[in-house]
């Protein structure tokens, strides 16, 4: 991987303020346009950015700067880094140990049943399998479908719980919101509930229909019976 300059604008600011290099030399070293370097020198650009010393970061030497100051045609070169950072490897299919490869169909079956929102590519990343195998297990056309049993890939050691949660979260973001039928809606639409009549009016009508004379007659009969009972007690 080609070496790159750290913080080009901050480095350009430091070179403008602390060296006699030309705008073209600074622009070539910092991968900027000469007019942008001129704007930095005039204070019209990169305001508020603190200059970065490339000598302290080990990206330039004083001898290299002095050589460029003495020769306007000299192009600044980055110093060789003291520490080599290994290049990041491209992430390929997950490697599965030979001892655990026989458990992959069971793990795939578990993922298909418990997380149907996962795509084939996500299952492939988690378990380290091929899309054709996933399709065979989905369609129950796998050669060992009769003997497969769903098993958690985390328990089998095929992936970590963090990786599984991340893939499930990614799949949930792209999934559309569930409909009312999927949620099992229990509330009736407002149009239907508005048509239903309330029983309050019916109760009021029943109360109005009660005859007042009949009520008073019943009360008189109750009083007369209570007096008769009192007279019987005196004798």
UniProtKB/TrEMBL annotation:
<protein>
    <recommendedName>
        <fullName>DUF1013 domain-containing protein</fullName>
    </recommendedName>
</protein>
<feature type="region of interest" description="Disordered">
    <location>
        <begin position="181"/>
        <end position="204"/>
    </location>
</feature>
<feature type="compositionally biased region" description="Basic and acidic residues">
    <location>
        <begin position="192"/>
        <end position="204"/>
    </location>
</feature>
<dbReference type="InterPro" id="IPR010421">
    <property type="entry name" value="TrcR"/>
</dbReference>
<dbReference type="Pfam" id="PF06242">
    <property type="entry name" value="TrcR"/>
</dbReference>
């Amino acid at each position: 991987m080609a070496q790159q300059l750290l913080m080009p604008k901050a480095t350009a600011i430091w070179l403008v303020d602390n060296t006699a290099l030309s705008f073209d030399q600074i622009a070539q070293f910092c991968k900027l346009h000469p007019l942008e370097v001129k704007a930095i020198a005039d204070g019209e650009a990169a305001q508020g950015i603190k200059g970065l010393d490339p000598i302290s970061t080990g990206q330039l030497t004083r001898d290299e700067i002095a050589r460029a100051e003495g020769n306007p045609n000299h192009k600044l070169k980055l110093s060789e880094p003291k520490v080599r950072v290994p290049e990041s490897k491209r992430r390929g299919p997950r490697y599965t140990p030979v001892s655990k490869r026989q458990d992959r169909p069971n793990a795939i079956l578990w993922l298909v049943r418990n997380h149907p929102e996962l795509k084939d590519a996500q299952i492939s990343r988690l378990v380290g399998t091929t899309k054709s195998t996933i399709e065979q297990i989905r369609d129950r056309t796998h050669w060992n479908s009769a003997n497969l049993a769903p098993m958690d890939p985390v328990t089998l050691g095929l992936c970590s719980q963090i990786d599984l949660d991340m893939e499930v979260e990614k799949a949930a973001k792209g999934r559309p919101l569930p409909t009312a039928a999927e949620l099992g809606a229990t509330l009736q639409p407002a149009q239907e509930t508005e048509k239903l009549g309330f029983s309050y009016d019916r109760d009021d009508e029943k109360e109005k229909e009660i005859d007042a004379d009949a009520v008073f007659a019943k009360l008189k009969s109750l009083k007369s019976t209570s007096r008769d009972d009192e007279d019987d007690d005196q004798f």
